[in-house]
Amino acid sequence: EFDRAKAALKEVVKQWKGDPAQLNPLYLHIAELDLRTNTFEVAEAAIDKGVTTKDLKEDLRAKALQHKGDSLLGQKRTMAAVEAYQSLLEQFEGKRPLGSIRYKVGQLLFDHGDAKGAEAVWGRLQGGANEVLWSLAREKLDHAKWQDEYRKYVKRIPAMATTSSQEKKQ
């Protein structure tokens, strides 16, 4: 019952108004509920309210950046989501396991047509605990490279078939 949970959290927000240390986790919980109900714009607004203070705890800031990226992605704002995820990676990659986020950023860039950017992002997955993700990424990159190199040959095959059938008619 997401609506009742959001209403209860908003009531607590009204009562605790003015205490950012207590409000920040509440806004993050509200954003999580909004993400679950696919109200991405509302989730982004809740995250923006909750991360306004500079003294935000590290865990909350990391979750907020991840949820911000998720909300932007839900709104089909892919490049803005990439920026949010990149910020998360820059700030917390050494402190938290974020291989899946790095893979997601590479996938978003790859799907957007930026294979070189995806390769740069995915390259940091190589070695260590993210070797499986690196293998998946490498496979996608190799396949894209193969398609680019052999596209001219693949396109020529139907042309050759039409040319040979035209020669037979003459």
Give the helices and strands, then pairings.
Layout: H1 2-15, H2 20-36, H3 40-50, H4 58-74, H5 78-92, H6 99-111, H7 115-123, H8 131-169
Could you explain the architecture of this structure?
- The chain is mainly α and 170 residues long.
- The chain has 8 helices and no strands.
- The radius of gyration is 23 Å and the shape is elongated.
Q: Ranges with pLDDT <50 over ≥5 residues?
A: none
Number of helices: 8
Overall strand count: 0
Helix content: over 70%
Strand and helix order: HHHHHHHH
| Major sheet size, sense and barrel closure | none
Round the mean pLDDT to the nearest integer and report it.
84
- Radius of gyration equals 23 Å
